[in-house]
Design brief:
Largest sheet: 2 strands, antiparallel
Strand content: under 5%
Shape: globular
Number of helices: 13
Strand order of the largest sheet: 1-2
Number of strands: 2
Radius of gyration: 21 Å
């Protein structure tokens, strides 16, 4: 059963990210010079990266229980990433079509301009647009998915080949080093298109924080192996909730700089590890249907926000900033829900293949 606390947080952070992006685009944040409604909620992506890293480590540990030769590591790793891509693809395809159609409508492109945009959208379609290859950037919010898949392809083979060395030594060094590089070479973690060394900041951000997710898995596994008194469990529960509250509070402050983000990534790593250990009161949410349903919407919400942002920006010029944010969030929820329902319907619909014999 799914962890209900994590699922609720997935939904909360996805909504926060949409509001954050809306205020970035519309230019007039809701709040004052110190407190902005979700003004620093790029931190929400850090939550998703760490959770993805946790599941990466969990999958690697499970795969190592099966027999395979060293020569199969590359193929096994590629097949795992391909599996992840396939699971995301239906939602990605829906959002890609909607986003591309929106771009064409808003730019009023003629046939040749549309064809040019379509060709340049190939990297977007295959989710390799964060590699530096020129693209239309049809859905720029999908950088997170592209960075996640790249990080998994990089880390998974190392994990299944030598889990202990990779997860306890190499990944901590790599993650901390990359977090330091990002912190020292830019104003904000949210500027994912800044070029650092040989790649985009978003790519390095994905590797660093998915690595933190691997550390999170090990910490969670360690906590599970220990016996805690009632006081110990209450103390861990207090730390867990305090970190989440602190992160959400930070997401509403105007401290949107790299120097603040790295410590919060590490704090999130600790809180998520405690949550996944299921030794605190939050374990009571495990399998909760409402929590699971909310969490299941988070991917659709995140992927479908881009064209909703553009539609409100283009056709909602008479609205105030607050109205734009509200309408954009509402439209993203509606489109995300439609996407989820369509994908679920397609997945349940049986596919019949008939062969004509002559």
């Amino acid at each position: 059963m799914k962890n209900g606390m994590i699922e609720v947080l997935r939904f909360i952070f996805s909504i926060g990210i949409i509001v954050f992006h809306a205020q970035q685009l519309y230019g007039r944040p809701i709040g004052n010079e110190n407190f902005l409604l979700f003004g620093g909620f790029a931190i929400g992506v850090e939550f998703f990266f760490v959770v993805s890293g946790y599941f990466l480590a969990k999958a690697a540990v499970k795969r190592r229980e099966q027999t395979f030769s060293e020569g199969e590591v590359g193929k096994i790793s590629f097949e795992y990433v391909l599996h992840k891509y396939r699971s995301i693809f239906p939602y990605h395809f829906f959002a890609f079509i909607a986003s591309f159609t929106t771009v064409i409508l808003i730019t009023k492109s003629n046939f040749f301009e549309m064809l040019q945009k379509l060709i340049l959208a190939v990297p977007d379609f295959f989710l390799i647009n964060l590699s530096g290859i020129v693209s239309t950037d049809v859905n720029d919010k999908e950088w997170y998915i592209a960075a996640m898949l790249f990080a998994i392809l990089l880390l998974y083979p190392m994990l299944i080949k030598n889990y202990n060395l990779t997860s306890y030594v190499m990944i901590p060094i790599l993650s901390l080093s990359l977090l330091g590089i990002i912190s020292m070479t830019g104003e904000s973690f949210s500027r994912v298109r800044d070029w650092i060394l040989i790649t985009y900041k978003g790519q390095l951000r994905g590797i660093a924080e998915i690595g933190c997710g691997v550390i999170c898995y090990n910490l969670s596994d360690f906590l599970k192996s220990k016996e805690f008194t009632k006081f110990g469990k209450r103390l861990l529960f207090s730390i867990e909730i305090m970190i989440y509250v602190l992160v959400i509070f930070f997401g509403n402050l105007k401290m949107n700089t790299s120097g603040y983000y790295a410590p919060f990534v590490l704090l999130l790593t600790i809180a998520i590890a405690i949550t996944f250990s299921e030794i605190t009161l939050t374990k009571k949410l495990k399998g909760n249907k409402i929590c699971v349903c909310l969490g299941a919407l988070s991917l659709s919400l995140y992927l479908n926000q881009a064209y909703c942002l553009e539609l409100i920006q283009t056709y909602g010029t008479s609205y105030s900033n607050t109205e734009k944010v509200i309408y954009c969030t509402g439209l993203s929820v509606i489109c995300g829900l439609i996407c989820k329902l369509v994908v679920d319907w397609i997945k349940k619909k049986p596919i019949h293949i008939t062969t004509n014999h002559t």
